[in-house]
Amino acid sequence: MQQPTQPSAASGSWTDQIQARFRCVLSDDLSRWFDDEIWRFADGSTGNRFASAIPPQELIDEAPAAIWPALMPCDFLPILTNTMGDWLCVRLAADNAAGQIVHWYHGGGDWIPWGDSLAEAIYFDHVRHKLPGSRRDHAISAGSAGDENDRTCQQLNRWAISRLEHRAASELEPLGGLELADAMIDRRISQAAVLCQLVIDALENPLLRDDALRALDIDDPERLQRGLFDNRLMETDWIDQVVANNVSHQQVLDQQDWDAAERHCRRASEIAPELGWAWDVLGYSQERSGNRTAAIDHYRSGLNCSIFTDQTVRVRTHGYCGEGQKFSAARLMQLGYEPSDAVEQGYFESLRVTSASDRRDQVREHFAALAQQAAPAQAHELWVRAGWDLGAEPMLAFAELLEQIAIAADAAGRTAQSELARTHRNCFRDRYGI
Fold this sequence. Notes:
Layout: H1 14-22, E1 25-26, H2 28-35, E2 52-53, H3 56-59, E3 76-81, E4 87-92, E5 97-104, E6 111-115, H4 118-127, H5 155-163, H6 177-186, H7 191-203, H8 210-214, H9 221-229, H10 236-242, H11 249-253, H12 258-271, H13 276-288, H14 292-303, H15 312-315, H16 327-334, H17 342-351, H18 356-371, H19 376-388, H20 397-411, H21 415-432
Parallel strand pairs: 1-5
Antiparallel strand pairs: 2-3, 3-4, 4-5, 5-6
Helix pairs in contact: 4-5, 6-7, 7-12, 12-13, 13-14, 14-16, 17-18, 18-19, 19-20, 20-21
């Protein structure tokens, strides 16, 4: 368990102040970011999308304005924004370390790790337009293409590249496409984010363009999304209307590479097993191959992941699961799965509830009941799941949840997570008066 240094009365570095404020241990990357005042370069003028920094004096406020309480997970501390509601956040770990950077998307609350350091995340932002799958962007709605921003390597990006020079990041600058993606994975730069790009690229079909299909005025959008996810389910007359006559249906289906998608998801599930999208695509890949047992195993792993980690719109699984339902749960129900474990059975029954708001309410109650009987470390994780497994109903519930999360984190020695949860609680109170 890492313990933050306690600054002396004369100490005034930003690192000391932030570590004292959040009782955390900043990574060297973050210390340099604050103490060398690199954040001043993130003034909105760089070519990256996430190019506006939160000044550290605002970050250590009692209720930082950048925090979106209840919507943003309570171990996230936002430090960079694209000024459109999306954030790069530092995620505070159970051992009080602050290093991993995640992208949090306000449109639905999805999040995905962009790196184990700030330099990785900034570099990924700098090059992601050159990666496969970039048309279905992390921060722009699916189907939006192009990025006309200036991509010159300005001070922010030069700093990130210099921090990654032990991984020869400067050698990657001329690369693009699969070559760049493979090189980043080999050098362990933003692996989960790059693998997600590769999965999207493997399942993207350039012959079935979104704009052409939307022009058909199809009256069953969920059926269309299922066909875009698995092209074998696409109506043949839809294909005929958007594909040239000299292209066979088999040629259309061959554009999807499910073997590659499965390979990338296996790697992602090993690197970051908490990410739902990897288990979802793994499970479906096995299901479409007729391997029901393997599919169920993967979907059960997906059940343990927050719905906010499934990237449903980007990987197009949202056509299967309805409002506020996990893809993994929807597929397990379709396959007739029945849990034998009593705890899993209780959770699964909550997921069967038809009403999205009632389902969230029951899931919250399920994990809250388990948390009340658990040891501190497990209780903390269960209280977090009560709030962010599906999202809690009603919104008022987050007042108690954040308090219980802070109490359990304190009891487990997770001082950083406790302090940040209390900060989110302060923001919730200031924002909503609750």
